[in-house]
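Email to the structure team, subject: 2-isopropylmalate synthase model.

Hi all, the expression group asked for a predicted structure before they design truncation constructs. Nothing fancy, just the tokens so they can compare against earlier work. One-line instruction: predict 2-isopropylmalate synthase, return tokens.
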Amino acid sequence: MTIDHPSFGRIDDNRVIIFDTTLRDGEQSPGFSMNLDEKLRMAKALEDLGVDVIEAGFPVASPGDFESVRRIAETLKETVVCGLARSGGKRDIEAAGEAIAPARRRRIHSFISTSPLHMKYKLRMEPETVLDLIASGNQAARRYADDVEWSAEDGSRTEPEFLCRCVETAIRNGATTINIPDTVGYATPDEMRAIFNMLRERVPGAEKVIFSAHNHNDLGLAVANTLSSLDGGARQIECTINGIGERAGNAALEEIVMAIRTRQDKFAYTNGIQTPKLLSVSRMLANITSFDVQPNKAIVGRNAFAHESGIHQDGILKNAQTYEIMTPESVGWTKTSLVLGKHSGRAAFRDKLASLGYQLEDAMVQQAFERFKILADQKKTVFDDDIRALVDDETRDHEH
Ligand code: KIV
Ligand code: ZN
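Reply from the structure team: attached below.
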């Protein structure tokens, strides 16, 4: 099955569109605001990374947001630039339309809540009013862009019958992408798969649009839910660098992309991401926001390709595939790091001595190794200079 899309033309069924929302949903989380200059730098880096769509902001939210979306729209050459708007807000859609106008390729993303809880307490609207606003919002959005995405906020907690009616209304009124967010990170992988399967089976016109997954990480399931949404037929994934986003964050771009690439046996999808650039984009975001990535973060955390235990180091030195499922170079690291600590073994110690330029006899290596183990018990990290000092001491003792 192929789809003819206003921004991407004919898309193969196994092509996954990467929609990055670092600059919108990511930026919305406490402490992660970025200024115009920082947003522009990030947008250029994301385009260079190969993302298909950049959600650049929520133009009606503030003059600063409007300005950043507009400048990003003026600057990017290839990537689709998207502005967010509420379906019910006339001014929202005008602001989004004006902000993205300079872009070579542009999209408006309109959304409204569809779950009983959100309609009753947040919107205070009847379901029929929500349907009317979906229709009028999408019609208004189409005046500014052929590429219109519509989202059912809190979609995963929406009653199936009503969700089908909303999606049908959105498609009839011009949506070309339909996004079903798990806004509060409540759904499980099997549920997300079932929602997409149901919509594709039951909604008239479903075959003409791209379905999109947007998963939050409140239960740590955002990436798993995104992968199972692909299984249910979604072909756009919404994600952020380092998984930043509201509360526990959004699905992390680097994790999804590397899961697809590493497990092609299960996820036979393609995308345009140049994975060796992942680490530098992750670091750029960490620098801009002043939030370090946790050391054990998959792909981009500093321990993602680091090994301290002797058994693992020995395995890595014999064949890296024993303990690494992707190469560090494939995501931007220069090499695997064998960290010397109290768990390290002789093989890694010998390797370290060689890399520091020492050629010692076996007996000397053994004595130096014993000294190293005593030191490692006292220190969290053993640095190269510690090793040098230790070998120099050992050589001196040996000579006397
Ligand atoms: O999580 C969510 O529901 C959203 C929508 C605005 C798409 O971010
Ligand atoms: Zn979100």
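The chain has a mean pLDDT of 96. The pocket of zinc ion (ligand 2) is lined by residues 25, 181, 183, 214, 216, 246 (CB under 6 Å). Ping us if the truncation boundaries need rechecking.
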